[in-house]
Amino acid sequence: MAHRCLVCAPLVAKSVEDMVAKMGQAKAAGADLVELRVDHIEGFKAEADLPTLLDARTLPAIVTYRPTWEGGEYIGDEAPRLQALHLAADLGADFVDVELQCATDFIAARKSKSSSSATKFIVSNHNYHFTPSEEELGALAAKVVATGADIVKLVTTAEDITDVGRVLKLQSRAQIPTITLVMGPKGLISRILAPKFGGFLTFGTLASGQESAPGQPTLADLINIYRIKQINADTKVYGIIGNPVGHSKGPLLHNPAFAETGHNAVYVPLLVDNLGEFLKVFDAPDFAGFSVTIPFKEDAIILADEVSPLAKDIGAVNTLVRKSDGRYMGYNTDCDGALSAIEDGLRARGLATSEGSPLAGKTFVVIGAGGAGKALAFGAKVRGATVIVVNRNFQRAYELAKSCGAIAFPLEELANLPASPGMVLANSTSVGMHPNVSASPLLDKEALRKYDLVFDAVYNPLETRLLREAKEMGAVVVSGIEMFIRQAIGQFELFTDGPAPRELMRSIIEGFH
Ligand SMILES: *[C@@H]1O[C@H](CO)[C@@H](O)[C@H](O)[C@H]1NC(C)=O
Ligand SMILES: *[C@@H]1O[C@H](CO)[C@@H](O)[C@H](O)[C@H]1NC(C)=O
């Protein structure tokens, strides 16, 4: 089937006039066709309204008159509803959607009518609760095919992202044009990856809030962010695994970077509940690499086939890359992201020796002993710094210090640490503490005078109180945004085994702020 997956805008409007207006908007937004959900039109009169709608169309249209028993808005007898669907076909609607329950009789009736209309019939079935087993899905698809459908449409609900795996498998084996979609936030990739698996169409809304089913992305996101019209069977899939992931900027960053460097790849949000199950189900070679975020960075160490020594020391993997032999390699790009930014800051200040890391021999004070604190402490240690860890909970500072060969101090000692040339302060605590931007400082401004460079892992706001005061006291400051940019560049380079479009990625991230 050499068919390009179509992008369909589902139109839900309360009036015919409004639906006509939305048809125009859908075309302008890049939709290939529209679905006219006439069950949403108040006081819908098929005889008058269908001709108006179909005459006004500038794109091919599906006419759908969904009854409440299939999750739609139509309440009433079946006879007038089915009559309206017949009328839509008689009027030459490009597609008419018929629910599985009534499809056999409906299609038989069409065939006995010897109408000249070229209308194609989509026979649909929706499960608003869950996704059946592979066997049940197969049986359901066979039932739909048996009605004489031109196009099969099976829609289920994702209770877990792995449900999408079964549905995509069914899709990729389909013998006749098929639409399979999985509703809900955990089903999102079924909508984005439909073109890769040979789906007949996928839905994108005109705007968020105008969904006709849960989990539909917008047309703009499908077309502009995910470049859905470029996705094909060979497209490699990357994504961010987390829970939650809705707020992730990854897709806004990696997708344009793939486009810029000419990679046939897409980067999607992956709302996962169990990392092991996810990796087991999506084990095709085209699922090529993942960013890993909270709460899976520790699980990823265990699940990767091989882990870089640094990621193992830090105890966190933020990048998984599938090698050509199918094995997963685990890396941590947060560490190099932060440390390389700090090294560049020291170089800019003229505090670098000609060889090796500018951190060698310097005192590097880390505040915090959580994930980011560990990455900073280990990263500084391998670069030859004398590392001091301070933390509110001294025991945790002590354990981190012991594991990386650093020295631990209680937080109260922070202000009393002796000064040394090229001293660095790195604040790793409460990453993402926004909007608590002016939380009480741990150090008075005067105590910052001994530092040549101050780093803050927080990047919202770009200039935290700590960085502002450090700058006032004459230090070079490095914002967490630098760590974010560089960890993303590091991931992209691991994903593609080639150079990242650094300036593009930097300008996109800076544009977020
Ligand atoms: C902000 O800080 C206050 C006081 O330290 C705390 O009670 C509150 O939970 C914090 N809010 C967030 C969103 O972290
Ligand atoms: C480190 O960052 C956190 C979060 O922004 C902040 O509350 C804390 O005061 C900072 N530490 C110092 C020493 O300023």
TrEMBL record:
One of its GO terms (molecular function) is shikimate 3-dehydrogenase (NADP+) activity. The keyword Lyase does not apply. It is an enzyme of class 1 (oxidoreductase). Its EC number is 1.1.1.25. Pfam families: DHquinase_I, SDH_C, Shikimate_DH, Shikimate_dh_N. Residues 480-507 form the SDH C-terminal domain. Keywords: Amino-acid biosynthesis, Aromatic amino acid biosynthesis, NADP, Oxidoreductase. CDD domains: DHQase_I (cd00502), NAD_bind_Shikimate_DH (cd01065). One of its GO terms (biological process) is shikimate metabolic process. Residues 240-320 form the Shikimate dehydrogenase substrate binding N-terminal domain. It comes from the Eukaryota. Residues 351-418 form the Quinate/shikimate 5-dehydrogenase/glutamyl-tRNA reductase domain. InterPro entries: Aldolase_TIM (IPR013785), Aminoacid_DH-like_N_sf (IPR046346), DHquinase_I (IPR001381), NAD(P)-bd_dom_sf (IPR036291), SDH_C (IPR041121), Shikimate_DH (IPR011342), Shikimate_DH-bd_N (IPR013708), Shikimate_DH_fam (IPR022893). The keyword NADP applies. This is shikimate dehydrogenase (NADP(+)). It comes from Marchantia polymorpha (Common liverwort).
